[in-house]
Target: Ribosomal-protein-serine acetyltransferase
Amino acid sequence: MSLNLESERLMIRNLKEEDLHHFFHYRSDPEVCRYQDWDTFDKEATLEFIKDQQKKGMHDLEEWVQLAIELKAENHLIGDIAFRRYDKDGSLVEVGYAITPGHQRKGYAFEALQLLISHFFDKMDVHKITARVDPRNEGSLGLLDRLNFVKEGHIRKCFYDPIDKEWVDEIVYGLLAEDFRR
Model:
């Protein structure tokens, strides 16, 4: 199932094989991987990942669906945004995101996440969106605060950081549809 969400600067769309170069470049950067639950990719695994993602859609349950964040002015991928609908009727959604280092701190993650959140709450009748964040990732913590997510929990040493080779904490944030619409 194809998806296209647009803002003034960005398009959120399905990944395509033409994204391989940019997707591989930042997904193999240890600084991008640091706060994620994946290690660096090789090119072959990256292509297989993209092909696998092309089979997934907005209504899939329990599966992570990865979408491209394209900067319209540059006509190429600058990051990705992912979600998984994790209850039986799809009304609970977890999100994640990654932006290339050269495009961070320019409001792109805010804009992309706001687009996806609006789509879920306004078009898909989602009740709640959650995000899990490494507490060392100050940029992501600030992003969720700006989007009015509420800190709901702190889970100790539940995630293994393959870059630093240590167990780290996660902070759980949530945003209810009723709070988003206020």
